[in-house]
Design brief:
By secondary structure, the protein is mainly α. The chain is globular. Pfam families: Caa3_CtaG.
């Protein structure tokens, strides 16, 4: 990413790509592949959502964020953990959407709202939350960098979570309107 963007903005862009692009696409492409450890997590939508949110918020506690920012190894480890937690969340959303759509819709909307709250905090804080000497690029002050990161988050959240919930809801409504599209239950009934 360009040096014109500060450290916090670059960090947030990586979060958005990790949680909102890579994880849902991986879950979508791997939805029909059995992954034994993940199959044991079936039914864990709520814990996956809580873990993903807790990890994201923990990563943005100022003291933790500053430690992550000082070490490329810690940064890489936390981003891999975030990718894994988001993947489990999206895998459960995709798995449950055809048979129990209200759960993924609720999880997507609640998760999206709580993620957006972090973006609001970064955008509207009156001072920089992070004391990073390298957080100031040639174009951005520490506060402007943080605000741009928050704005990116506020754009990325609705685009992914609300859009995902809209897709699940529209498919649910379509199935309600057209019984021939309802998923088979495996009981022999058509």
């Amino acid at each position: 990413m360009s040096d014109a963007f500060g450290h916090v903005t670059q960090h947030m862009a990586l979060h958005i790509v990790t949680m909102n692009v890579a994880a849902p696409l991986a879950a979508l492409f791997l939805r029909n592949i059995q992954i034994r450890p993940l199959d044991m997590l079936a039914g864990w939508l709520a814990p996956a959502a809580v873990f993903q949110l807790a990890l994201l918020w923990l990563m943005h506690v100022p003291a933790v964020f500053e430690q992550i920012s000082r070490s490329p190894a810690i940064s890489a480890t936390t981003h891999v953990a975030l990718l894994a937690s988001a993947f489990v969340f999206w895998r459960e959303v995709i798995r449950l959407a055809p048979t129990s759509p209200w759960r993924p819709i609720g999880a997507l909307l609640i998760t999206g709202k709580i993620v957006c709250l972090l973006g609001v905090l970064l955008l509207f804080a009156g001072r920089p939350l992070y004391a990073l000497p390298h957080a100031q690029g040639p174009e951005l002050s520490g506060l402007a960098d943080q605000q741009l990161a928050g704005l990116l988050m506020l754009i990325g959240c609705p685009l992914t979570y609300v859009f995902g919930a809209t897709i699940v809801a529209s498919r649910w409504l379509l199935r309600m309107d057209r019984p021939d599209l309802a998923p088979r239950t495996g009981t022999g009934a058509a």
